[in-house]
Design a protein that fits this description.
Length: 174
């Protein structure tokens, strides 16, 4: 099944929040936070859309010369199709256009698929924040966060001009 990427809009909020609550049940952002993120001049959010509707979203924030992948999520039924990679590469292109020297992210230490994706794109582990994420179940312990960074050199290699500008049609993958 093919999918396309486009910029997120306020009309996507309900779909984004449904994914947010399903994927991050222990620490989902409040809708008010997501509204602020979608409207921030410091950021860009994209959504992945297929025949089922919005199946993923990802966000970037760039302040000064530092970028941060704020969040990335794909519905469980749409995983393993390259959606997260496509959204991340799109946002890295945006980070480069905004002149970010480096891009940071945090990932749950118990998410090997996400860590492998970030590794494959050149992110390097910088640190571990112990017990950063809340447990997924009441009896579970909190989960460490792995802090990762993509430097300017790797960003330059990865980031390509976006085909997903407001004046062009969505980027299709399939």
């Amino acid at each position: 099944m093919t999918f396309s990427l486009r910029d997120a809009t306020p009309a996507d909020l309900d779909a984004i929040m449904a994914i947010e609550r399903a994927v991050f049940p222990a620490d989902a952002w409040p809708a008010e936070t997501m509204v602020a993120e979608l409207g921030s001049s410091h950021g860009r959010y994209v959504v992945a859309v297929d025949d089922a509707g919005v199946v993923g979203y990802a966000g970037l924030r760039v302040v000064g010369d530092q970028g941060d992948i704020q969040t990335i999520a794909v519905t469980p039924t749409a995983r393993r199709r390259g959606i997260a990679r496509a959204m991340l590469v799109e946002l890295l292109g945006e980070a480069r256009r905004r002149r970010a020297a480096e891009v940071f992210l945090e990932v749950r230490a118990d998410n090997p698929h996400a860590i492998a994706l970030y590794d494959s794109l050149g992110f390097e582990e910088l640190a571990v924040r112990p017990r950063y994420y809340p447990p997924t179940a009441p009896a579970d312990p909190p989960v460490d966060a792995v802090v990762m960074r993509l430097d300017r050199r790797a960003l330059r290699v990865l980031a390509v001009p976006s085909a997903n500008r407001a004046t062009t049609p969505p980027v299709h993958h399939g």
